[in-house]
Write a structure and sequence with these properties.
By secondary structure, the protein is an all-alpha fold. It is built from ten helices and no strands.
């Protein structure tokens, strides 16, 4: 009786731990940062967002694709419980996203808001959520069709790689936008050469994601992304408030604001 209880607890613990293998993007409708929002906030805030969300076992931008350790050590006997737990969690997320209302009624908008722009933005968000919902449903089908723990491992690695690659792609896009609007950046330490080098380094890492064969390789790539971000911030003279880079010292200014016309940013 005691042996059975211990085994049940062990199985339950493995199931709970293994849930972390699915990239966090699959369980949250992440707010996309527009080019205009990024440039108005300045790359200092962008770096803080990227670096500040990182925690133990997490990859770039808080991606939890690195959390595949439990699955590596799971036993085939746990396959059924792991698969069921993953499907149940995905099912709840699919249901939640299906019930989301992204297009507000025009009469509910605050006074002075441009109704056409608000409707267009809401429609854009609805399309984005529809795309994420389709991804969740596709992932559900993949997991449902799995017949072994090795199948789940392959699915986990594939989606982790996609998550890391997408995260790096977003960073590359932001640095590219900065480079395109370099003349508007007040910080003279942010040069075309620095941005070109940073983009090239990130592009090289993104290419390495496809050839990654296990979580250790993805962890190394995640660490390299972190080093590139830290190097950029150091060369640009940016200090983060709190977080892994320490507190911003007195007199340190984050003068890297860039402003673009909204129409240009949304183009």
């Amino acid at each position: 009786m005691k042996t059975n209880s211990v085994k049940s607890i062990a199985r339950f613990a493995v199931v709970l731990m293994v849930l972390s293998i699915i990239p966090s993007g699959a369980f949250a409708a992440e707010d996309e940062i527009s080019a205009d929002e990024m440039t108005r906030a300045g790359p200092g805030n962008m770096m803080k967002e990227r670096m500040g969300q990182m925690g133990p076992g997490m990859g770039p931008a808080g991606m939890s694709g690195m959390g595949m350790v439990p699955l590596d050590y799971a036993d085939e006997d746990y396959f059924s419980e792991i698969q069921t737990a993953m499907l149940e969690r995905l099912d709840r997320q699919i249901e939640r996203m299906s019930n989301m209302s992204d297009i507000p009624e025009l009469e509910d908008l605050p006074e002075g808001v441009d109704e056409e722009k608000a409707a267009a933005k809401a429609e854009e968000r609805a399309e984005a959520n529809a795309g994420k919902l389709a991804e969740l449903e596709a992932l559900y089908s993949e997991i449902e069709d799995a017949t072994s723990l090795d199948d789940l491992k392959a699915i986990a690695l594939s989606h982790a790689k996609d998550g890391v690659s997408d995260s790096i792609a977003r960073d590359i896009e932001k640095f590219t936008k900065m480079q395109e609007n370099l003349g508007e950046i007040e910080n003279e330490d942010v040069t075309d050469e620095l941005l070109t080098s940073t983009i090239a380094d990130l592009t090289t890492l993104q290419e390495q994601v496809d050839s990654a064969e296990d979580r250790e390789a993805l962890q190394e790539i995640g660490g390299s992304v972190r080093e590139i971000m830290e190097s950029f911030r150091e060369e640009a003279g940016i200090k983060q408030r709190g977080g892994p880079m320490g507190r911003e010292g007195p007199g340190t200014s984050m003068k890297m604001q860039v402003r673009m016309p909204r129409a240009e940013a949304e183009a």
